[in-house]
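Paraoxonase structure dump, as promised
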Amino acid sequence: MGKLLAVALVGIAAALAAERLLAFRNRLNASREIAPVTLPNCRLIKGIETGSEDIDILPNGLAFISSGLKYPGIKSLAPDKPGEIFLMDLNEDNPRAVELRISRGFDLASFNPHGISTYVDTDNTMYLFVVNHPHQKSTVELFKFVEDDNSLVHLKTVRHDLLTSVNDIVAMGPDSFYATNDHYFSDFILMFLEMFLGLTWSNVVYYSPKEVKEVAAGFYSANGINISPDRKYIYVADIFDHNVHVMEKHANWNLTHVKALQLDTLVDNLSVDPHTGDVWIGCHPNGMKLFYDDPENLPASEVLRIQSILSEEPVVTRVYADSGSVLQGSSVASVYEGKLLIGTVFHRALYCEL
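structure tokens r here:
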């Protein structure tokens, strides 16, 4: 009887493990292959060689690009090199990327930038919020951008017990923001178990100097976050649930769920066209290729454009898709007056004229 029970328990455990493995592969879109979608007027951006994980463009056409992310489980082309912030002026005929100088006193050696967001105050002061992972921890760094000498002045570092595994951020004011925690745990092994078991413990946090609170929860992995042009709705990408959530923002900063738009891809960072309200997304068609470093099976890139996301029938268009021969692991796509920037987790960046 004891042996029979042991065999039954082993069988049940094996069945559960197999079911979890299948679900995990489905969340990674492990079997998906894509057909290419090319754009005619594109070039790789010189000087960006180790990632361009997030991009945020000011209304005046200045584009900030975070580079050099070291993220657990994903390759880095320069694991010992500190991260950087680049700037491109998209008003120029031939825009180029320029590394921004960061003020003295900031720990550049451990700079590991992830998601970014800009905010222009009423006095026209320009702030840059940067998710940072020094020593695999999570902080949010607040900088003031000095346009005259292309520099960032570090103002403060934000740490909080609710900001445990921050992925992306959207600024609400000069010292307040929403942030996504892509995992509940920050330890790599526990993060992997969280993904493998399909735990929905990821969340969104609101931060201000006066109040810090969870405002949305129940995500597999909350990733990119952004705001509608009228500032009434917050958009949240759940990378492992392959969808974008529309959340209504309230006066007390709480969020309520409106709807989710399901997509057949792993959605990363979200950018919003301030003129049209279109949502542009850098996506991973097959997440398995992103995590497994195989030079014969490169991680692909995909860019989606969502028009009329608040309507009953949003229009989704595949604007760009590449097998990895040009661009590997796309994570963001941002537009400014007919110009498109596509960034990646660890690879190059692409500039296109639409």
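The chain has three helices and 25 strands.
lmk if u need the other ones
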